[in-house]
């Protein structure tokens, strides 16, 4: 049997889970959309049919003031039960089990009605919460229990009580945010009363044959966070209070240490769950950056945890568990931890989806049904857009020939995967290459699609996905061999010196700076990574923090931006701060409001705030965007065949694989 530990059933006494895989909580945005619960039902049902052992919904508030946003979802009234039954019925029809997460935002509420243990503003929200009165504390405990009872009535198999990531319960537990002087504050035993009262109230309402998961913050990663002894004390008390499972929570949302972005090593925090395994007997779930069955199998087989939680990997592939069970892990569409279409969308109040799987959360809208009008389609360019279109179109029954002038597929992903911490992009290339083989796409490497090739074969339509070329800058001295573009550097075509200026501070510029700062040995070694970010595996300090190791770059790098706006403003909301932090740690000199004059033997001449400067650099690397590669467009149009453009050749803004892959999917549906 493939992955025997991962796929082994887990007995909870009153019920049994068919395997050790939890689909972790994710807010999709469908919770608030009109008709969203029907779409959510389709989303969850596909994952249930895909074999996951237990699903947890996105956070549902137990009352109005606990909402994450003014119009966020809550379950407080009997009339709200009906729409939840749409979800539970769909999951049960798919052979799965589902728990509803109860989440009170506390001071993270993005509205002026937020409540918290104390009147202390969060650094990540604009609103200062009101301190809860004793009566409001008691009412909130009752609201949790009432919400759980309604969840039972709606057909959920259990609830997950969100007690981590810096939300309300975490705020009560931690002295950082709990400055109360009543029975709910002060010493730790008092601060811990709130979560324990909630669990006991829920258990009393729902009985013993109902799953209660408690998501416990085992590693706060903030100053004045919980100590390890406090975490253990609370875990033991929760076990006695009647929780069925304890899920691992890592980091508050305001923490300045990344916990889920692609640069975080796989399974980086399993050591925390393993440490807790020595303290309690209740089943424990390991979380964060577990994205392959191999990682999950190792964590369970080695005794680090009883289950593994994966959230975004089920956006990337609904069939994750079934493919693992068939020993077809090479066919899994792996989550690359980019956050671009999931968490970034959530923070923009948009529906979440997935960069590598645009069907995620669009299961009722994006489908590749078999066609009755089969066509022969020529595709130019095997980057993300071309690969996606080819696979989706072939799935529908079209005969697709994919032409790639280079010796490998991947396009810009072949550059992205060379950036330290972005090695996961290899997985997307592997996935699409296997899908190309599986769906009999005729892949022709080292072959440029041009008019001569088209004369030899008969095609019905042409899809151009030839990508982008770096934008050139025409200034004095920029024809010097020491002025190069980012593609030349990443492809190893040129050597650069120890003093370098990068022109352009978008995603390409940041990636290029990171590439030049770090050696090409893997950055995904957990112990090395923990030291870089100041995570103490010995847990001697509250919050699990220690002094980060110093890793000043051997190179002097100047990252230059023409705009005077904040450096890296256009980067992803949930990952941009990580990229900025990395470059600061390496001592990269970041300048905004720069005008470029010329390059000569002295170096790069620039003007910053009306002051002329010369950067004595060995090289200038152009990262100032790109242009659509439309060199053969006229030839294709001259054939008289229908011609479609997708990806960078259509729009050459910041490199946008999310849009490219989605365009490929939408064209495949329509063609």
From TrEMBL:
Ranges of residues in domain NADH:flavin oxidoreductase/NADH oxidase N-terminal: 6-327
InterPro entries: Aldolase_TIM, FAD/NAD-bd_sf, FAD/NAD-binding_dom, NADH:flavin_oxidoreductase, OxRdtase_FMN_N
Gene3D superfamilies listed in its UniProt record: Aldolase class I, FAD/NAD(P)-binding domain, NAD(P)-binding Rossmann-like Domain
Cofactor: FMN; [4Fe-4S] cluster
CDD domains: DCR_FMN (cd02930)
Signal sequence region: none
Entry protein name: NADPH-dependent 2,4-dienoyl-CoA reductase
Protein's organism: Shewanella intestini
Highest classification ranks of the organism: Bacteria, Pseudomonadati, Pseudomonadota, Gammaproteobacteria, Alteromonadales
């Amino acid at each position: 049997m493939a992955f025997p530990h991962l796929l082994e059933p887990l007995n909870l006494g009153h019920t049994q889970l068919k395997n050790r895989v939890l689909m972790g909580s994710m807010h999709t945005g469908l919770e608030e959309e009109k008709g969203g619960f029907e779409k959510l039902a389709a989303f969850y049902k596909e994952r249930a049919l895909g074999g996951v052992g237990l699903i947890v919904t996105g956070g549902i508030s137990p009352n109005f003031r606990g909402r994450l946003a003014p119009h966020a979802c809550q379950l407080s009234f009997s009339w709200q039960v009906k729409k939840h039954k749409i979800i539970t019925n769909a999951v049960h029809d798919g052979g799965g089990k589902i728990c509803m997460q109860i989440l009170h935002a506390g001071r993270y509420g993005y509205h002026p009605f937020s409540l918290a243990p104390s009147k202390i503003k969060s650094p990540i929200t604009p609103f200062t919460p009101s301190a809860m009165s004793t009566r409001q504390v008691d009412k909130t405990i009752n609201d949790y229990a009432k919400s759980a009872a309604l969840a039972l009535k709606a057909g959920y198999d259990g609830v997950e009580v969100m007690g981590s990531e810096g939300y309300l319960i975490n705020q009560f537990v931690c002295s950082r945010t709990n400055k109360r002087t009543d029975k709910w504050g002060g010493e730790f035993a008092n601060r811990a009363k709130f979560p324990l009262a909630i669990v006991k109230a829920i258990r009393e309402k729902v009985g013993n044959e109902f799953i209660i998961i408690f998501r416990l913050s085992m590693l706060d990663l903030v100053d004045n966070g919980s100590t390890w002894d406090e975490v253990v004390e609370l875990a033991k008390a929760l076990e006695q209070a009647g929780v069925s499972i304890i899920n691992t929570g890592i980091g508050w949302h305001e923490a300045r240490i990344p916990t889920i972005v692609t640069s975080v090593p796989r399974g980086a925090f399993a050591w925390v769950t393993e440490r807790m395994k020595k303290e309690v007997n209740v089943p424990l779930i390991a979380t964060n950056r577990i994205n392959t069955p191999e990682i999950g199998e190792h964590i369970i087989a080695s005794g680090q945890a009883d289950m593994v939680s994966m959230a975004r990997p089920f956006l990337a592939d609904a069939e994750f568990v079934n493919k693992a069970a068939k020993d077809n892990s090479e066919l899994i569409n792996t989550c690359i931890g980019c956050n671009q279409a999931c968490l970034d969308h959530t923070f923009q109040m948009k529906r979440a989806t997935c960069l590598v799987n645009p069907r995620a959360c669009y299961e009722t809208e994006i489908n590749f049904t078999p066609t009755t009008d089969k066509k022969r389609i020529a595709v130019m360019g095997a980057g993300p857009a071309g690969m996606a279109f080819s696979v989706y179109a072939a799935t529908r029954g079209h005969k697709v020939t994919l032409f790639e002038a280079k010796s490998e597929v991947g396009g810009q992903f072949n550059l992205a995967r060379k950036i330290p911490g972005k090695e996961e992009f290899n997985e997307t290339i592997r996935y699409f290459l296997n899908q190309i083989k599986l769906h009999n796409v005729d892949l022709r490497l080292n072959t440029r699609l041009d008019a001569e090739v088209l004369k030899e074969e008969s095609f019905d339509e042409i899809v151009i996905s030839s990508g982008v070329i770096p934008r050139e800058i025409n200034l004095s001295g920029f024809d010097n061999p020491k002025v190069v573009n980012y593609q030349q550097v990443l492809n190893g075509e040129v050597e650069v010196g120890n003093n370098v200026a990068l022109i352009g501070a978008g995603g390409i510029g940041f990636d290029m700076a990171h590439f030049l700062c770090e050696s090409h040995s893997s950055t995904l070694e957990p112990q090395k990574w923990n030291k870089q970010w100041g995570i103490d595996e010995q847990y001697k300090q509250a919050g699990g923090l220690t002094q980060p190791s110093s890793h000043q770059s051997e190179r002097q790098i100047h990252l230059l931006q023409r705009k005077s706006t904040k450096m890296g403003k256009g980067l992803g909301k949930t990952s941009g701060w990580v990229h900025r932090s990395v470059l600061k740690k390496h001592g990269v000199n970041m300048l905004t409001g720069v005008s470029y004059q010329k390059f000569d033997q002295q170096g790069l001449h620039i003007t910053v705030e009306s002051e002329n400067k010369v950067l004595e650099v060995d090289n200038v690397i152009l990262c100032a965007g790109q242009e659509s590669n439309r060199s053969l467009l006229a030839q294709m149009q001259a054939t008289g065949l229908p011609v479609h453009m997708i990806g960078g050749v259509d729009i050459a803004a910041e490199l946008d694989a999310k849009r490219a892959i989605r365009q490929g999917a939408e064209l495949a549906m329509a063609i």
